[in-house]
Amino acid sequence: MTLEMSWGLLLPALLPVAAMLLVLVVDAVAPRARLAAPVIGALGLGGGAATALPGLVGTGPRLTLCTPAPEGRCLWDGGPLTSTLQVAALLATLAVLALVSIHRAGVIDVVLLLASASGAAAVVASRDLGTWLVTLELATLPVIALVAWRDRRAAAHGALTLLTTSLVSFGLLVLGAALWVTGTGDPTLTGDSLATAWEVPEQRVLVSLATVVLVAGLAFKMSAVPFHAWTPTTLAAGPLPVSALLASASKVAAVGALIVVLTPYESVLGLSPGPHAVVAALVTLTVASMLVGTVMALRQTEVVRLLAWSTVAQAGWVILPLTALTAAGRRAAAVYVVVYAVAGLVAFAAVRAVHGPHVEDRRDLTAYQGLLRRDPVAGGALALALLVLAGLPPGVIGLVAKIVAIRPVVSAGLWPVAVVAVVAAVLGIAVYVRWFAVLIGEPGEDAPARQRSRRASVGVALVGSAVLVLASVLPQLLVGLVS
Amino acid sequence: MIHLLGPYVVAALLVGLGVMGVLARRNAVLVLVGVELILSGSLVLLVAAGATAPSRWEASSVLPLFVITIAAAEVVVALAVILTAFRHRGSIDMDEAL
Amino acid sequence: MSALQVSYLLVLVPALAAVATLALRRWQGPATLVSVGAALVSLLLAVVGLVVAPVRGTDLVPLRGSYAVGGLDLPLQLGAGPATAAVAAVVALVAAAVLVFTRWYLAADDRLAVFAATVSLFTAAMMLVVHSRDLVLTVVGWEVMGWCSYLLIGHWSRKESARRAALKAFLVTRVADIGFVLGVVGLCAGAGSTGLDTVVAAWTSDEAPGSPALRSTLLVLVVIGVLGKSAQFPFQDWLPDAMEGPTPASALIHAATMVAAGTVVLAQLFEVLVLADGARWVLGLATAVTMVGAAVLALGQSDLKRLLAWSTVSQVAIMLSALATTTRDVGPDPALFHLWSHAIFKSLLFLTIGWLSVIAGSTLASALRGAGHGHPLARVAWLFGLLALAGAPFVVGGLSKEHVVVTAYEGAASAGGPGVVVLAALLVTVVLTAAYAVRAHLVVSAPVPNSPIPPLGPDTPGPNGGIGEKSTGHAGMPSAPVLASLAVLTVLTVVGGLVLLTGLFDVHGASVWWMVLTTLLIVIGGGLAWLARGSGDPRDQFVRTPRHRALADSGFGADTAYRALVARPVLGLARVVAFLDREVVDGYVRGAAASAGVAGWLAERGHRRESPSAGLGLLALGLLVAAGTAVLTWR
Amino acid sequence: MALILMLLVPGAVGLWLVTGGRGLDAHTARVVALVAATVGGLAAVVAAAMRPVVDRAWIPDLGVRWHFAIDGISAPLVVLTAVIGVLVVAHAWVEQPWTDTHLGLPRGSAATYLGALLLVETGALAAFAARDAVLFFIAFEVVLVPMWVLISRYGDPKSAAARADASARFILYTAVGSTLMLVGILLLVGQAGTADLDALPAAAGALGQGPQTLIAVLLTLGLAVKVPVFPLHTWLPAAHTTAPTAGSVLLAAVLLKLGTYGLVRLPLANVPDGFARIAPGLAIAGVVGILWGGLICLVERDLKRLIAFSSVAHMGFVVLGLASGSATGLQAALIGNIAHGVISALLFVIVGGLKHRWGSVDLAVVRPALREVSPRLGFALILGLAAGLGLPGLAGFWGEFLALVAAWEPAHHEGVLRTCAVIAAVGAALAAAYALRVARIVWVGDAVPDAATDDPVAGALDRIDTRTPDTRGVELAVLAVLVAAVVTIGVVPHTVLSVTAAAAEALVGGGR
User: In angstroms, what separates the C-alpha of D282 from chain A's closest C-alpha?
Assistant: First the structure.
């Protein structure tokens, strides 16, 4: 058996790995070169993203790791959707690397970030269960370590929470994979193998069960309700940059993994019986996440907790278009998660710029009183991010993302779900406008002192804002990426 | 035709035990054990399925290898984290307040 | 100048004069001169209009094209005809007289110009109604008149009673206008056009756009509006209260505009009205009740101005009763003719009492006793006005009333309908009218000389910035133009009946027998009043106890009834609605907000133990839910 | 060109004012904003006359085009918005909400305030000119945040809680509506396969009854919040009471029109059969709104709230006209829209001015009568009230009368709509009652109020401010423009009707 291989398509995942190895080697050779690790890491991430760029504009199929015809199956798909998610994950990790800030980023940080990034870049491209499982865990495990290895009590607690959920999630994923193979006799996640299995009732049951279990396992990683409980604890307890990573790159990876799992279902959409169980599971997740996440976010006054709960809610929004199980729905989910990742990163960066890295700081909403006046740059970026998250112009891209997310659902005839989304959208506006109102208020007397060493976070916030503004003016730049 | 009922029952039992362990225990290490049980159940299922019907690329045999590898890595990280936590908290009971 | 051009000018000239007067209000003198000048020009135009009035039945070529709004034709045309020209002439005449009188009467008022402007606008609106060949224009004029009446009655807005009277006048008429507007809307919508001719043609044709019942209902609605504007039962009570306005305003409202407008409109819709028996019955019964009731009340008033007001109500009822009883052959012109004559003598009466009240300082009968002494013109004018009111033969009011009586008789004889009731009421009213006319005359010409400087009576219009009817410097003698206009009105009151010779009104000859009969009735009524005059205060001739007097002055307590039956329930309902809005409708909104809060609280409780194992508990829940949905949705 | 200027100038200047130009001093900011509003307004007038078209791809993947054009239905609204836009900016010389009149403290900057005004104007203009359903939705949403800022930041200085409540109500309530509308739009666009408003009616005409009804329900429900239709109106009084005068004017004259305009553009034009099916419900809601608003106005104490409730009543007539489904009804709704825009703008300028002068507009407090102490303001008030009660010769009459005619002879559901017409006529009488109630309390009376008031606070206020300076300067000019508009539309309704006629006919006739 031979595998057709084109290295170019694998580079987005391989470059970070290479960079990681290089960092380790350099560290072994020249342990004094403190700057080397972050620079090499940045280059690896940037390079990975750059190699994924052709996929954004490419038109032809970008498959590789294929077995020969006629039974040909490809294990790697570098199409536009994949490339978009890869770029997003890699650049988000790069931003987090910047947030960790040049001086603090040690070798371990960089290595773990790179490992996670390469896992994220790979999982979205994988098309078989083996690669998928390995790379997904590659994306996850380093993050646990990232949360834990900073020697802090709160962080350890957060890491423990994340760890146990990740373990269970992994168990579920493996169980799901086993069920899938049992049901289809095929480790690839393709439409025709699913369609074949779908014809036999027993296999149909098994496959559906497999998918539901897989979705549940992924829901942990996406922090969708009811698998979300780790999110506020971990995000609030861990270092801010890692929280930002969990909210951006990890989420992109998880969404990519979910998209990979759900892709085959397009082939059985029109059949009778259809994949009701999967749709039901997804609808349950999206509805519960959107509602619980926003409602909880409404009651938070600690900003990172607020962002954590908003992450939960946004997870619901990402899953929303996937309930349609169509290609349009998958593209919509990708667009939405990218928009969310950028806006979330900007928000975290702004929070980092206001508070500094320490958990012990009072990260209360009141600290943002009149931020727009006191600190127009961070305040402006945060305001824009909040409006994008709320989906209100001038954050047009947020609104477009909501349109994009609701459209496939409506087309699929699931408009009651869309009506729930309306409620969630309105509650979401309440969440973000509440913060926004604090931002534009009069500055209070007890505003926290302006942080030093905030250049990196301000830089990330500004770059992210620029992306958001550009995307707001020309949404096609983002929306068009995945088509 | 021989029914492979036995392995399937074992797999189900293992998964069930694992889920129970995960849910019932507060000790992080025991949770870890529970997850391992789920994994074992899954592996039994995979292998049994491979024995029933051929699968593409012998996935039923290959996937368990992958899983075992990942699980090993996972256990390493898990133990490290649990150790860190123990150092900070003096216990590995997950519900102990901060 | 064609008749149509005249009709457009008759509307435009007063309207523009109103705008100009308002613009110039800082300079009261020139401003009022503008409106008076415009009124005189209108009068001239109206005379021209009389000359060029087209022969009955000629079709006029419209001056403008028609508009359309969706499926609705909106011609917005004016028209002209002989009766129209005559009514327009009398409107112009009264308006001019009123404006001339106003310049003298309100000379020292700080809002004289605004008043004059309003009068001009009022005139324009009435001209619009008179000339309208389009029901929308009729509604426009109709409503604008209502608004102007609000402004005029409430002119002395520093006085609470005037404010209330204005409010009441507008609200009562507006409530009745619900019917009017709906009726017009129904007629127009059915015909697909607002053009009067189209509407009449559509609703009188065999393929009418609605059933006869619908037609009748719509006409009843229109009649309700007319009853409101014309102060007929059950809407009668606003008009006497409207006496709170300055006397010129009363003259205008009563004589030629507002209250008479209903007659004009129903005359325009006459062809449809005769087919609508229901509407005729409603109109006939309401007017019959009104004419008698109002005459009785007039008899009991302690205030002569209010007496005149009730007499207006009664007389307008007579006009409208002609429309209720007339047959298709006779047509609406008897009513219009009575409008014509009523306009002349009622404006004369009101202007005269305005003058007398300046002399006496009040319009109370007690104050006006003998006020006519020393002012022969006033006495003559008052006498002839009352003669016409009473319907003495050959003066203008007598002639027109004869025609109404004959019309009612013919209607009763030929078609039945409400004719019999109306005829009976008419005859009773003749007696009563004669009686209160004699009483009014007796008061003014009583031999008791009035005191030179009478005190301010309670009903005297209060000072408006220190200036009111009782301004100094008049010495009770009006200016020459005022006297001239009074003289003209007096002369017309006597000889106005000659208009029948011109053929402008298409009325049949009156019957001698009826004339003899009504004359007899007048003599009886007048004689009774004369006999009952007693020796004391003529005010107390008929109403001897204070309780009865109060009852009469309150118009049989209609105001109380309005409050109890309409105002209070509506306000109560409003309070209920406001409560519902606050507590129920908004309650849902607050409830949504609160439930979001409660949901958050519950969710927070659910997440209180933010610990890893709690997370696993949620996992179990999630698995259960997922498995449950998987099982349930499986088929 | 004119279209681009109309959108770009106020939009760009507004954005600059709220971001980069925040530090500008009040005077410069006002001049800049006025110039921007005037240029944008002139461009809008030119655009309304010349009818240019801008059509470029924007988000091809969603089928959303950057497609702006003005037709007969939107032209009057565009002109209205342009005029109101200039007026509200000019009003910044009269009332300066960025200085806290109550405590003398500055709050926010003048530039942000003016920028928000301009952004609201831009959003409204864009929505009226949008020829793409999704673009319309986005433009519809643009107005939310600036308006929210106006209410929450520059609203009634006395009560922060009231500001927070009103602004939250405004944004959340309208967000519910607009998101529901979005679902409807996406359903419509998905089923019809195009988002182009020119092509949609034909494309959507083929839809079956079920989808049509569902789409119509979603769209109508969503837009009804904005109109607002009873019982979805409870955000309006709070928003109006709290907003600064200019905000109230924009809200009443422009934002509410977005709702009715949307009803015309989306459900009525595209899913006529579905809309006809729900028309009776809409008509009943409209009529109940007429009565409801009118009755509350009879007992409401706060004059600004009262005017707000009267808006609910007036929009009831507009909705009734729309629900009739005939060309006459559509025309009635369109002219009623414009009329309500100018009338409510006029009333809010006056009442806002009174609140500015008096500190509150509680009708229970005895104050000097306007007719005596400030006749010009009094004249404007009484004219506005007269127009509000539907007096012929002023703007309000035509919309109401034609709506009644249309409801009497509707395209469908004759029984229900005729009943509605009857009830609406009763509502017109209520309008007279509450208008005159206001006139009796505020306009007429004595020059000096009775010294003895029960309320000690009010008494104190009276002592502080028994003077009511008459209107002059910029305020007078603003009022004069609005009065002129009210009279012009009333006397010559064809200025509006002739513009909308062809488009209305095409819309009602062409959908089938």
Answer: 21
Structure tokens at A373: 């006046």
Question: Residue C27: phi, psi to the nearest 5?
Answer: -105, 90
Q: How crowded is the C-beta side of C627, counted as CA atoms within 13 Å?
A: 6
CB nearest C170 (choices: D392, D393, D436): D436
* Range in A146-160, A319-333, D24-38, D82-96 with the lowest mean pLDDT: A146-160
The pLDDT of residue A443? 74
Q: Which residues partner with C119 through β-bridges?
A: none
Q: Do residues C400 and C394 lie in contact, with contact meaning Cβ atoms separated by under 8 Å?
A: no
Q: What local confidence, expressed as pLDDT, does residue A451 receive?
A: 64
List residues bridging with D65 in a β-sheet: D57
**What domain range includes position A460?**
7-482
The mean of the pLDDT values for chain D is: 86
- pLDDT at residue D424 is higher than 60: yes
Categorize the per-residue pLDDT at A92 as very low, low, confident or very high, splitting at 50, 70 and 90: very high
Could you give the C-alpha distances from C620 to A70, C624, C627, in angstroms and in order?
44, 6, 10
Are the CB atoms for A125 and A76 separated by under 8 Å?
Answer: yes
- Does the beta carbon of A387 lie under 8 angstroms from any beta carbon of chain D? yes
Of D292, D296, D436, the CB nearest to C171: D436
Nearest chain B CA: its distance from A36 CA (Å): 26
Out of A101-110, A270-279, C87-96, which region has the weakest mean confidence (pLDDT)? A101-110
CATH assignment of B5-97, among 1.10.540.10, 1.10.287.3510, 3.40.50.1980, 3.90.1210.10: 1.10.287.3510
Taking the CA of residue A173 and the nearest CA in chain C, the distance in Å comes to 13
Contact A248, A203 (CB under 8 A): no
C-alpha–C-alpha distance, residues A7 and A62, integer Å: 11
- The DSSP bridge pattern shows strands C67-69 and C72-74 to be antiparallel
Q: Which three-class secondary structure state does DSSP give residue C195?
A: strand
Q: Give the nearest partner residue to D446 out of C154, C158, C192, using CB atoms.
A: C158
D257-287 residue pLDDT tens: 999 999 998 888 888 888 889 999 999 999 9
Question: How much is the mean pLDDT over chain A?
Answer: 86
Number of structural domains in chain A: 1
Q: Could you say which of D59, D62, D176 has the minimum Cβ distance to residue A422? A: D176
Q: How many CB pairs lie under 8 A apart between chains C and D? A: 138
Q: Which residues fall within 8 angstroms of residue A421, CB to CB, at 6 or more apart? A: A290, A317, A320, A405, A406, A409, D179, D183
Ranges of residues in chain C with a pLDDT under 50 are 450-474, 635
Q: How confident is the model over B24-30, as a mean pLDDT?
A: 80
What residues 570-589 of chain C have any CB closer than 8 A to a CB of chain D?
570-571, 573-575, 577-578, 581, 585-586, 588-589
Specify the pTM.
Answer: 0.89
Each domain of chain B, given as residue ranges in start order, spans 5-97
Residue holding tokens 């808006």?
Answer: D311
* pLDDT above 80: residue B29: yes
pLDDT in tens, D486-508: 999 888 888 888 888 888 888 87
Give the integer Cα–Cα distance in Å for D316 and D334. Answer: 13
Q: Which residue ranges make up each domain of chain C?
A: 3-556, 568-634
Q: What is the pLDDT of residues A178-222, one digit of tens each?
A: 989 888 888 888 888 888 888 888 888 888 888 988 998 999 889
| CA separation for the pair D21, C504 (Å, rounded) | 75
Q: Do chains D and B touch (3 or more CB pairs under 8 A)?
A: no
B chain contacts of residue C617, beta-carbon cutoff 8 Å: 23
Please indicate whether, in this complex, the C-beta atoms of A170 and B71 are within 8 angstroms of each other. yes
Gap from D337 CA to chain C (nearest CA, Å): 15
Q: In chain B, what residues touch C609 (CB-CB under 8 Å)?
A: 95
Query: Among all residues of chain D, which has the CA nearest to that of A394?
Result: D142
